[in-house]
Design a protein that fits this description.
globular, 4-stranded mixed sheet, 5-stranded parallel sheet, 238 residues
Length: 238
């Protein structure tokens, strides 16, 4: 059962909240970019991938075989996911235990990619994601936000970078904490790209009317400044 902890207020029907959808492939910087943009704009940031990775973490720790899942509906009914915001930072809970820092490993990412292909799981999480946008000016990121979850988002950004750049960034991010191999990360990212682009349901695409932003040749600060310029120009006309 999914319990929404923080949304006790009713949606403000008198005000139209602004929705910004940020999509892109694995390792493109969606999470860090979305957080920085949300902070600069004073928007709420929601990482939809964290929902999927929490389910991935559940399957991984419970050692459930994703290749031969029986009774998927029963499994989902037994998953107790909570989330709440602390200083606009999203915290994830599984069975009342915070797991925010445990769901970003390569192993969780790989199993999550498998699970994200399953229509029942995507449907299970869809309404949760849509409901959040009713309550705040929000930046939401994932792989099908602008195309499926929030197709009427006010601003859609498709954030991307070359597979090699994405792999190097992830390698640099993780090399101090564990023994990790760049070639292996690159292989995982290419595999994830292929699976995300070619899955039958809700494949990874640049949504209609989205702004495609390739940050391969920009550092983080440059990317944020350029995206803020794009977004502010768009907001003026909303």
């Amino acid at each position: 059962m999914v319990k929404i902890l923080d949304f006790t207020q009713k949606p403000n029907t008198a005000k139209k909240f602004i929705t910004i959808a940020i999509d892109g492939p694995a390792g493109s910087g969606k999470t860090s970019v979305s957080r920085a943009l949300a902070s600069a704009l004073n928007f709420q940031y929601f990482d939809t991938g964290a929902l999927y990775r929490t389910i991935g973490y559940y399957f991984l720790t419970k050692k459930i075989n994703t290749k031969n899942i029986q009774n998927i509906s029963n499994i989902l009914c037994n998953i107790n996911i909570d989330f709440k915001f602390k200083n606009k930072f999203q915290l994830m809970f599984l069975d009342n235990q915070e797991i925010t820092d445990k769901i970003n490993s390569e192993s969780v990412g790989l199993i999550t990619s498998e699970l994200s292909k399953i229509p029942e799981i995507r449907c299970f999480l869809l309404n949760i994601q849509r409901n959040i946008a009713k309550f705040n000016n929000i930046i939401m990121n994932g792989r099908d936000i602008g195309s499926v979850v929030l197709p009427d988002a006010d601003i859609k950004i498709f954030l991307t970078a070359s597979a090699e750049v994405r792999a190097f960034r992830r390698f640099e991010q993780n090399k101090k904490t564990k023994d990790i191999n760049y070639v292996q990360i690159l292989g995982n990212i290419k595999k994830r790209d292929f699976e995300d682009i070619n899955r039958k349901d809700c494949p990874l695409i640049a949504p209609k009317n989205s702004i495609i932003f390739d940050n391969s040749n920009y550092n983080f600060e440059e990317s944020i400044n350029k995206l803020l310029g794009i977004i502010n120009k768009k907001i003026i006309f909303l």
